[in-house]
Amino acid sequence: MKNMLIFLCCSFxxxxxxxxxxxxxxxxxxxxxxxxxxxGTSLTAVGAWVGQLQVVLNQQFPGQAKVVNxxxxxxxxxxxxxxxxxxxxxxxxxxVFIEFAINDxxxxxxxxxxxxxxxxxxxxxxxxxxxxQCEIILMTMNVPVGHTGVQRPKIADYYQMxxxxxxxxxxxxxxxxxxxxxxxxxxxxLYIQYMPDCIHPLYDGALKVITPKMIQSLxxxxxxxxxxxxxxxxxxxxxTMDRLxxxxxxxxxxxxxxxxxxxxxxxxxxxxxxxxxxxxxxEGIFKHFDANGDQAVSLEEYQxxxxxxxxxxxxxxxxxxxxxxxxxxx
Length: 330
Known about the structure:
Elements: E1 5-11, E2 13-15, H1 23-29, E3 34-40, H2 42-45, H3 48-60, E4 65-69, H4 77-87, E5 95-99, H5 101-104, H6 113-130, E6 135-140, H7 146-150, H8 155-169, E7 172-175, H9 176-186, H10 188-194, H11 203-218, H12 232-242, E8 250-252, H13 253-267, E9 275-276, H14 283-289, E10 296-297, H15 299-313, E11 320-322
Parallel strand pairs: 1-3, 1-6, 3-4, 3-5, 5-6, 6-7
Antiparallel strand pairs: 8-11, 9-10
Domain EF-hand: 285-312
InterPro entries: EF-hand-dom_pair, EF_Hand_1_Ca_BS, EF_hand_dom, Ester_Hydrolysis_Enzymes, SGNH_hydro, SGNH_hydro_sf
Signal peptide: 1-18
């Protein structure tokens, strides 16, 4: 009987559990085929790490590993309970990765830590009922910053619940949150490049932070994750920009700047036309935006930081960024 791997994704940061070896990796080494389901929020649904993981597995175990992305943008654990049969169990996985903490923590959704734990336990019970040998891997994710962090004042409690659940069940925990905290503390300017909308890591954030942590925690060889060309998060964010003026699968500089002007307004809680430090609590990122050091960030300062990504992707200097016509789980 093949063992099933299910990844429940909510918050990301890698912690090695009491079990030093990951069963699905051992099964792959033994020549067995494995089905892996990733299950969680937009951090998984449009996470470039999913494609990067598939590429690394293909490099080391050609034709043996199938990674199915069962996540959904905007989802929390209540959605996960309802979607489990279709998105996870229908694939008869050997392993499942699970992460829902980041959206359970949104204060306005009124999902308590206790309720989130109850939902997670329900998913675990049903996965193991289908296949007692299925491997479940829990994940914590990145640190939401700016207005996305303000919306999640108790995110640390939800991530801790995932750590506690992993320990209680003897599951592997990948604690991406710890990795992202390190980047935030040491290179806040890099953090905002990796995660410009304050919550969704782009391709480089996955390649430099998420995927290496997964490879290390899973006991895989380093491989070359950069061979993956999937950029779902980039495509999702830029498709949102594309719809602001004219939906034509390309983003003009005007659309790009309008998107970030609207994003600025989300940070500006008191609507005074400036972002104060209490509106953007992450000191390092705030200082990165506050170019003149006057303890307030203007729209012009904000736009200057974000000009980086447009210039990076407008490689031919045409004033337009083209978007791939991909499907999104959002």
